[in-house]
Amino acid sequence: xxxxxxxxxxxxxxxxxxxxxxxxxxxxxxxxxxxxxxxxxxxxxxxxxxxxxxxxxxxxxxxxxxxxxxxxxxxxxxxxxxxxxxxxxxxxxxxxxxxxxxxxxxxxxxxxxxxxxxxxxxxxxxxxxxxxxxxxxxxxxxxxxxxxxxxxxxxxxxxxxxxxxxxxxxxxxxxxxxxxxxxxxxxxxxxxxxxxxxxxxxxxxxxxxxxxxxxxxxxxxxxxxxxxxxxxxxxxxxxxxxxxxxxxxxxxxxxxxxxxxxxxxxxxxxxxxxxxxxxxxxxxxxxxxxxxxxxxxxxxxxxxxxxxxxxxxxxxxxxxxxxxxxxxxxxxxxxxxxxxxxxxxxxxxxxxxxxxxxxxxxxxxxxxxxxxxxxxxxxxxxxxxxxxxxxxxxxxxxxxxxxxxxxxxxxxxxxxxxxxxxxxxxxxxxxxxxxxxxxxxxxxxxxxxxx
Amino acid sequence: xxxxxxxxxxxxxxxxxxxxxxxxxxxxxxxxxxxxxxxxxxxxxxxxxxxxxxxxxxxxxxxxxxxxxxxxxxxxxxxxxxxxxxxxxxxxxxxxxxxxxxxxxxxxxxxxxxxxxxxxxxxxxxxxxxxxxxxxxxxxxxxxxxxxxxxxxxxxxxxxxxxxxxxxxxxxxxxxxxxxxxxxxxxxxxxxxxxxxxxxxxxxxxxxxxxxxxxxxxxxxxxxxxxxxxxxxxxxxxxxxxxxxxxxxxxxxxxxxxxxxxxxxxxxxxxxxxxxxxxxxxxxxxxxxxxxxxxxxxxxxxxxxxxxxxxxxxxxxxxxxxxxxxxxxxxxxxxxxxxxxxxxxxxxxxxxxxxxxxxxxxxxxxxxxxxxxxxxxxxxxxxxxxxxxxxxxxxxxxxxxxxxxxxxxxxxxxxxxxxxxxxxxxxxxxxxxxxxxxxxxxxxxxxxxxx
Lengths: 451, 451
What we know:
The structure is a homodimer. Chain A is α/β, with parallel strands linked by helices.
């Protein structure tokens, strides 16, 4: 009997997160205070983050223990399955072995819950009563709503308007878990009002929504801010994915030649590939491919430079690939990939040449997703659809060359709330957005000057 | 470390289905040909079913082997997890131990895939190219679309109009898997046109949609009909649920005092409890509670008598609890529970006093579902929400009495496509429907005369 899913018992779930920082060949560039351009201090961050997360952000410890209470919640859906994509392989006629690590089994439907639970936990421990956050596609907002609900915190979500309108079910899901969700830009913050004054019909962006949530958190003592990607501690929490995948690949007696995932802020894919990085640094020749949308090609087209994480310039300055913090990406369905920047850790590894990047249009991404759904059953979210397209291309290249490569895909979540996009695709009405060169040049011209 | 999910390996998945028929204390009443009122013969059924399924319908074999190709597909999501509901128990402050067997991990989101894959397989083996079916809430239509897609068959789904309008995402899901889905009553069949002539705004019912699908299948040589519940072979295929649950409860060192599930046609709950029935017949005192909506109280209010499975009287006459085949239930959100009849096997066991029934309004069902979502994370479908309400009541009774009973819940699927109903509930706009006595008396008056 062939094994389709490689499962782990709850006893095999990792009990620590893996921190890449001590293993980096060069340390991460310094993060700067946006007001002074001096290195940011823990004190600069404590208005919006609990001290434990600030420590994790800067930690040089290789392993950080996962608190028991967080492990208890993780076990509601973790360890997540690793699947062998036999049906897809057969349909492609490829000798390649395709595996996918599926995070869609969490109640919120994606990998985001891994950090949401941890962040809600540490904030509760610090005496915080309420978290404010942004969400793009709604995956992160849902996950934090769940995390806050399970930890007994209030939750306020600023949801990028383009997604808020496309995905009403995501709002209801957040409300089902007791959160409040409003479209961003909103009239409730200075940042939101400033954008609306310039463009009353603004579709919003993650950069704008982050500004709103940070402003909300900074203005209230009982409230902290929570970010669903980009930051080091978020990458850290996601490493449960890759640690499990390593054990599962071992059980399948396999090792990846290529690891492929989508990147918006970078946390889902980093969560999968970071635990493999020590092998790569020791000389294992695997390729690691980051897939991003052509409409928001941060790593494939952007410079590696200091920028803000949000549109209003409230966050620290981080060195990263960026299209400029004022860039508002076109309304592609993969809301989670509509971000101007990229996690400093992912950017750093890319800059060092340890990982690659590619950009993909959404129509071929949906073609890949449809093939996946019709063979593997699972209907993927639009974000990993971009990675699936690249997996299929690599598998077809193997068919051409006769190589039986082992491919590992980060399948970050399901597309149950993205079916209107499938409807558009199936009815032939899905459009692609060309590389928005002029808008990007304009936003790059507005990059902060860091000396 | 406490264990939250009791998982099984793929090697522990059952390789046979369990057939209750040889273990019944009295045989099932004879099924009758609707035209002659004589016992139905295999030949009567072969216009719309493949012979293997007809044989399973009448089989007296205790175990029927699951074909390898069906097992291969099952392993895409099976074995499904058994969860211990620690967070719900804690929130209720009950000494009861609550377990739930969760079928929502299938790509189509419910238990329905267990029989969909098997039915598509046997039809393919019989040379059939296309299946026609009905769907209520969309769970069954989605599952059969997936089954047909994976087996390479065409699929036509007649979807009850009330649900078709409430749940557009379900239609898109079916189309993503390549099926065609239209609202029922439709103008494409005589049965549909007859209903529309009487009531152009008919919300439809499972009984009407079944008539349309049976008529479609009977009229084309390349097409068979596929039913998602009620029939013996459907109950049979669902017994993988209960067989897994028995092994999982053993691993948890527990045994259920009460098993609770929702019943529409009866297959999800039968799938869970039938494999426990031999213990019950040997004298184990466990209670088995079937939960149905007050708006469609088949077992709690209907007579046990011969009736058709569909509104047009095309199906065989089966002895079952029924509200009359012409009864159109109110538009409750639990579309899967809007059925006038009940599986003959479930009806028979109820008539013999081996299982109980209760009816529940949808508002308290959603109250229970919300408590479940806010403690266990998973957002339940409206159908099992009815069972969750009864689980909570039983757990609170344990709190009162101090008894630490073990409760096992059939959590048949998730509510990702039912969030508009949660929205209605959260905004205080959900209404209950009183027992529709007059309509039921009228439809009972139209029961067929069987001598």
